[in-house]
Amino acid sequence: SNSGRVLKFLNYQAYTIVSASSNVVPLVGGSAGTAIVNAMAGDTCTLVSNGTNWLIMEYTPNNVLLI
Question: Which residues is 46 bridged to in the sheet?
Fold first, then answer.
């Protein structure tokens, strides 16, 4: 029901962000789990729904310089 919806997360504090359901597919693929963002302040993540699961499309750690 959420197919195509995009969610963006920015971790302001060093807390792990997790889903209440096991429906998040990691960036590298594999089976769905609950992990969204690691416990590192400044990490960002973009999720896109395929209607069943949320696919991590982008994950940027705080200490990475994007050019």
Answer: 8, 58
CB 51 within 8 A of CB 36: no
The helix or strand, by DSSP H or E, that contains position 58, with its residue range, turns out to be strand 54-60
In 10 A of CB 37, how many CB atoms? 19
Tokens of 12: 């302001």
DSSP secondary structure code for residue 46 in this structure: E
| pTM, entire model | 0.85
The strand pairing partners of 48, in sequence order, are: 6, 55
Under the banding of pLDDT at 50, 70 and 90, the label for residue 62 is confident
